[in-house]
Amino acid sequence: MATHYHTLGLDTTASAEEVRQAYRRLAVKYHPDKNPEDRVAEERFKRVNEAYQVLSDPAKKASYDLKINYQDAQQAYQTYQRYSPPPPNPSHGKWAPHGYRYKNRKGPIRTFTPQEERKSTYFAFGFVGVMAVLVVILVQINKAYVARQLEEKEVRRIELVSQMQQFCQRGEVDSAIWTVRLLQKEGFITGEEEDARERVMGQLFLLAKQSFQEEDYPATVYYGTLVNEGWPREPVRDLNIWMAKSHVQLGEKDKALERLDSLMIHYPYDVMPFMEAARLVKEDRPFDALRYYIDAISIITSQYKARYGEGYMLVMSPSEVPSYHFEIFLEVGKAYIEQEDYAMGENLLRWAVHINRKHEEGYRWLAECYARKGEASRGCQVIRRAISRGYLNRTTPLTSYCD
Question: Is the pTM of this model over 0.90?
Fold first, then answer.
């Protein structure tokens, strides 16, 4: 039997980190954006996502492990029950001395009179007739029972939908989302209920946004969690960014990183989750931060090339570049300088200076790169040129690179 562990290519002793790594690897591999119109990959992605939802939650994982262990034990028991030893062979063991009697014994042949045969025929027809009547009666009873169940189910559905609409009108969001969960649990989500659910989700989204703007981080996480639980589609990008930032403010970095990792999988060509993750781990795990920044640069440069071609550096204006790109190129450029890869650091920092010409940090690190290469005069030229063009003040401390 295929289990969620098989789906992720893991055994039942896999740790939470192994589950997360396997999920990220397989989700990126089978993501619909990477495999357009590939039904097999789409189905595999759904199974991978479902497996991760169960195995990443300790409570759900414990329940699931108990379930598969019970199924394995039940299957083993059923296999044992189906086994039956062969009957004793009359030609062996204690039967051997009397084998000739067993083989040659024959019973008397019984014959029936015509009257007895007619009676048996009448009895058979009567039995079949009675059984047919019973079957018809049972079928009618079952139809009536099913019709009654459907009627009760429809009454229940109408009642829940009415309650949910009333809760929405009164602004009782918690009660409305509770009703949505009941509708989901009892299988009542159809066209009308879907519209009502989307209205509830919209209200929750606005509450999460308002809470984040007011710096009410517990409320942001609370309302965001309700949206994620009640929304069967991929996670809402902005909402989960707010939730990740809220987790950081609440001292829950692991939860924030888990939220961002989920966004990276569902939005593999979006820079923001990678940049936020890099900011989150930059102090404690600089190598992981660098990896996130490099992934972000890979996404950014592919977008540049798709729009402007390989010569994007020659034709792109700074006004066309989002301001946060400066941070990404600056951080990766600094990292390469620290690793003494000055050629790569210079290329990245030159682009950082190009897209933000009034930020001293870019010039400082570019001058530092030249100084470490033994080309301090080039760093000085960069500083003086920026001053002459009005990008830097004449009193900037960066003139120390010209001493």
Answer: no
